[in-house]
Amino acid sequence: MTEPTPTARSIPLRHGDFPTLTAALDYAATGDTGFNYFDGRGRLTTSLPYAELRDRAMDLALRLVGFAPKDSRIGLAAVSTPDFAVLFFACQYAGLVPAPVPLPVTLGGRSSYERQLERMADTGDFFALFAPESMEPIMSSALNDTATPVITFEAVQDLPKGDALRPFGDDDLCYIQYSSGSTSSPKGILGSQASVSANCHGITKHGLQVNETDRATSWLPLYHDMGLIGFMIAPMMAQLSVDYMDPTDFTRRPITWLQLISDNRGTLSYSPTFGYELCVRRWRDDRDLDLSCWRAAGIGGDMVRPEPLTEFSQTFGPMGFTGSAFTPSYGMAETTLAATFAPLGQGLVKHTIDMRHYETTSNAVAATDLTPPADTRTFVACGVKLPGHDIEIRDADNAVLGEDHVGRICLKGPSLSPGYFRNSQATEAAFSRDGWLDTGDLGYWHDGQLIVTGRHKDLILYHGRNIWPQDIEWAAQAAAPHRCGRACAFSVGGAGDEKTIMLLLECRTRDDKLLQEIEKAVSAAIRLEVGVPVQLMLVPKSTMIITSSGKLSRARVKQKYLDGGIIDLQAPTPLRAVEAQG
């Protein structure tokens, strides 16, 4: 096709009420919608109607049936191309469990990527890994010490055909979604046909209230749950057309994302906060955009930061974007994708609290005119739970907490994953026997909506205070935004008086005078913001370790620091230590 698939389905809308992915695709294929792939300049490269996707997937599934036993795990390089979509759904028709894996450009250096890929193949017990021809050398190198063969997408087409399809049933698995690698061993999160169907129904029927005129737009990577579920599986289960651009193209030309929304009248699109922030930084007011069609501008995948989103509204308001379109939500791969959605049209509902109360009592008390600005922090409400699901805020003793009391976020419902693939220890630690998931996140209820405050394991306990590393990091970045990159705060040493709070800040200079200016400005900002002793270390750019989903891995940066793998730019004679393994 030379044109994108239309927005109009030509068949009645169904909100993901299918027992399996193949049943959903069988129905979507009777309509006119599908997937569309664009380059970094917004030019259509390929159009893939659901009818064609189904035909190609079924044809390829016959080849996979003869290739691998049922329920075998197949690693899939998660490229934003038609090949990935065809192979993913071919696995569904062939009864094979696809495991999308990150691409070589997403996990830092080659050695780090190869270690992560090898661990994924090992923990997932891959029967094979399918990849584009261009990625075959690095993936084969990574799996050189394993029995997992790497087969190119092109070679899969030449496999001999089997006798009959063996599509997954209602009670079967659907995929393995890898955790984003914030620890040394990524966990394989299982998605079942039932959990995926339940979550997609909740997303499309209740969370986003998909209607006849909706169209999706996405740059999100397909190895991450927000891209895979939110913008491939869920849209297909609601017969939506989707316009894709590659994540790498987005980082180079983020305004193309907005151009696609404007040109194709996209109504639904999501991004972590940093995606909106990047658009503001790159905007040159050099083109005409009409973003009035964008009714749900979702925010997910990381902490919702109100300041960059407010800037986005101010920058693109003249082009029709309305702040009420912002739709914060909360979820994780263990809940398939989504757990809560802000009511549509609500925009950003902010709650500014007195951090002095919070740090000593764990109560979210609203700031007043008498609260010093340095002692306040603003959070954003992430909405209400999906119907049929339960959320509780619990304290350390598992007692359920009431409004404005911060505790552990625990979830229960049909969207929950069955657990982690062949990892009973991790499954038992996160999932209780009565069906509850301890998310590892902290939050509280306010006016009936969930507010997420951060990860429990990242919380720094200092002299009886609860200190969020994000507060330290954001203060540092705000103090020297043009010369500094990522920041990472963590504690080392003992407890209480013996604990040292470290802050590593990436700098794009090695000039001693500039470094001294940065140190002075950032140190003053931190003292004002958090009021605790923080040991600042200025480090070279690209020091931080980032997960495949783009999040900072504080645990791995801390370990790198403890192993002596961090360069101090202000040390008299900086020594390049050997980077930590693992």
Explain what the structure shows.
There is one protein chain. α2 packs across α3 (about 80-95). The protein has a domain at about 460-560: ANL, C-terminal domain (GMP Synthetase, Chain A, domain 3). The chain is built from 17 helices and 26 strands. The two termini are about 45 Å apart. β1 (about 35-40) and β2 (about 45-50) form a beta hairpin. By secondary structure, it is α/β, with parallel strands linked by helices. About 30% of the residues lie in helices and about 25% in strands. Strands 11-12-13-14-17 form a five-stranded mixed β-sheet. Strands 2-1-10-9 form a four-stranded mixed β-sheet, with helices on both faces. Strands 4-3-5-6 form a four-stranded parallel β-sheet, sandwiched between helices.
Question: What is the secondary structure topology, with strand pairs?
Answer:
Layout: H1 21-28, E1 34-38, E2 44-49, H2 50-67, E3 73-77, H3 82-94, E4 97-101, H4 110-124, E5 126-131, H5 136-142, E6 150-152, H6 153-156, E7 173-178, E8 188-192, H7 193-207, E9 216-218, H8 225-237, E10 242-245, H9 247-252, H10 255-264, E11 268-271, H11 273-282, E12 296-299, H12 306-316, E13 326-331, E14 338-341, E15 350-354, H13 355-361, E16 376-380, E17 384-385, E18 390-394, E19 407-412, H14 424-430, E20 437-446, E21 449-455, E22 460-462, E23 465-467, H15 469-479, E24 484-493, E25 499-507, H16 512-530, E26 534-540, H17 554-562
Helix pairs in contact: 2-3, 4-5, 7-8, 11-12, 15-16
